[in-house]
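User: My advisor, Dr. K., asked me to get a structural model of this assembly before our group meeting. I'm new to this, so sorry if the format is off. These are the inputs:
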Amino acid sequence: MEKRSVKEILSPRGIAVVGVSPSSPGGYASRVTVALKEAGFPCIYPINPKYKETFGLTCYPSVKDVPEPVDHVVVAVPAKAALSLLDDCIEKGVKSVHFWSAGFGETGSTEGAELQKEMLKRAGKAGIRLFGPNAGGIFVPRNRFVWSNAAPRIPGPIAFLSQSGGHSGYLPIIGASRGLFFSSIVSYGNAIDVNECDLLEYVTDDPDTEIIGVYIEGVREGRRFFDLLKKATRKKPVVICKGGFTEAGKRATFGHTASLTSSETVFNTLCKQARAIQVEDMDELRDVLVVLRFVRPIPKDYGVVVIGQGGGASVWASDEIEKAGLNLPPLSVETQAELKKFLPEAGGIFSNPVDNNLLFSAKGIAATGQVLGKVPEINMFVFHLGFHPSSRWGGPAVPSDKEALKPIIDALLETREKSSKPVLIALSRPLDLEGMKHFLTVQEAFVDASLPVFYSLNQAAKAMSRVVKWSRLL
Amino acid sequence: MEKRSVKEILSPRGIAVVGVSPSSPGGYASRVTVALKEAGFPCIYPINPKYKETFGLTCYPSVKDVPEPVDHVVVAVPAKAALSLLDDCIEKGVKSVHFWSAGFGETGSTEGAELQKEMLKRAGKAGIRLFGPNAGGIFVPRNRFVWSNAAPRIPGPIAFLSQSGGHSGYLPIIGASRGLFFSSIVSYGNAIDVNECDLLEYVTDDPDTEIIGVYIEGVREGRRFFDLLKKATRKKPVVICKGGFTEAGKRATFGHTASLTSSETVFNTLCKQARAIQVEDMDELRDVLVVLRFVRPIPKDYGVVVIGQGGGASVWASDEIEKAGLNLPPLSVETQAELKKFLPEAGGIFSNPVDNNLLFSAKGIAATGQVLGKVPEINMFVFHLGFHPSSRWGGPAVPSDKEALKPIIDALLETREKSSKPVLIALSRPLDLEGMKHFLTVQEAFVDASLPVFYSLNQAAKAMSRVVKWSRLL
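Assistant: The format is fine. Below is the predicted structure of the whole assembly, which you can bring to the meeting.
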């Protein structure tokens, strides 16, 4: 029998949730139920023999007892109940079951491995696709198919496949403030049936997905994965973060998702051949997603001009940016002289980085952008807008209300438009409450203007360097 | 004539501030005046011929007109006024002048260099020591000698010498929340007279200084500096961050403080020979200061156990920690079995990292600490206490009120005491206002208990790795 496609099972009509309990509203099954309800998913069936109703929904003793069709079942009960639950699902004729529960193959026990085998056998016979076990959840906001209320339910063009439930849960929460929204996020855990290959195939063909992110601990079908990866990167950019390279990381991946990780060199080579963009950690993955989503155009070369305020910060930034693989072309005496026409000379640096107190003003930004936009060695602008780590810092800073920020943002957009070179923003993260209020206002204003925001110059440079390198290979 | 010592000039009786203006309260001279006043410095003399009084203090037309003795003068007026101002200071018989103003040697112009030479000549003849020009300021809270209200005026055991004014200003603000307080912070800018050597000599002998931090762009007297550094490290740990290694960084250091930087290899070798702890950036400098200040005892070897919650985070942490130079010794089957007696097996990782939902509870922490404290390969504990990046995340977390945190902190201190192994805390930085409130409460509680707090596992590991390496060489 042909296996059901991922596409089919990500658009379920009815979802049953096993393990819901009004007495533990923080439990996984309860959270899934509430999240589905708040998302407006139409047919939710909580399962618990002890209750007739829970969270305002009719509760059923077992999956078999639901009077309407059930396509997908979310299971959050201990591993020992897995087989009988699966039998109920087979009887009900469901299409897919997601085992959130842990305590299977990843414990390292023979029982865990045997249990997984038996589940796979029974499900396979019945044409049921399995997610997990030990998998965080499925998040397809356009289908109102969600598992948590924490992430905004705004659909976007990014798909994220994650072997880790934690990463799959954090990314849409953390990413939202920088404008990252998702077509689908699937955490696949131990991946005894639906795995990274099935999911990669799906998101490659998904018309709502323009960018693909992957967090992977171990590849199960190496050959198939790399063939699919090559196919995917021909259609859209794929960013991959691999966990579990060191000895300790390998031990942890086994305990986490029972994955056996491959050698770092082999994996890296295959990613390179497949033209995927490899990153070192989840922070970098987010940064590269921000570049792919908001940096327009992708520059053809590595030249960057850094514009902002703070001498020590500028020296450090220069070192960091060159180490990250971009370069800061020196500015000619003529260009420097042009800048000095409107930027005060004392206390400034003009050689690239360009460092000046006036660079917090719309006028200063626009005039600087106009001069530097003409320098052919400069392929992109990075503004570090003097965001101070604490509201206690008394020096110059960007304004903290949206009205006053508007001309600054207009000057940045004008710079991008007139120069046809992308503009990136680096904001330092705050360390106190007042600073956080200021930071959130400023960040929102930039992100609303579709500007790529990074939390340090180093982060911006590393992400840009990876993307420029990748785009030059295409 | 013997030059006046740094010690003498850091304890001035009277301070005159040139360039104060009530119409620009955000200007440097005004901020210095207000800061000195709020710190309770007794004899402050604002200088401005336009006013009779400013910020509640009598204002004088020139330094010469102050009727009381003036030891130190802070100058924040344009470079072209420098010489006549210096002449006033000579006439008045002051001991030291700090030129905050920029526009001197760092502009690269012949005039700038000539001006500096002349200043040095005149000051030298009169026995006046010069700070800067283009230097951020002097901060000696125990003497009420400060330049900004931003940093808390709590004296502490750390000295920081910084060629960058920005870094010298940020560090005490940013460091305070992690328990870093200072004996003295001096930003020395272009360093035409008082330089890193004079300052290093001073802090080496200063009985109130136990730890020395240095941010340096260029060394003026290489031989003397490394001799002094060797002498310093025999008495107290010295952490050095060097800016301006790459081509762009060198350009920026010249524009910033007119420094000519040396080769990276030479500088690194000399630091190693002198047994200084070298770090790559200011973030790392702060982290190493936290280690030196709060990690007790400094472990003899690199073995770490990572304890916390979140599978993906644990896998990533393992990789990061091993890359940073620490190692995670695997736990024996026996040790794992002991842990499984009280930690639920499903969803947990027991191999090191130890990952379990119960590890947010005081009971779970204490019991885990007791088992792992006996493992000889483990030299230190790192707790990542499941700090979530957003309050929207619904999973388990550390409590957000001090009362509920107390037993957790007691369990951590008990673990340290019973095992004689240090305990480090990694907290993720928040991304929203609610998260920030939670984070600040938790951070304060840990820091009040003298626990070393880091903002990521990777940061904690990198800093520990550097300090263990250094301490093994001693």
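One thing worth pointing out at the meeting: The domain at 6-131 of chain A is CATH 3.40.50.720 (Rossmann fold).

User: Perfect, thanks a lot.
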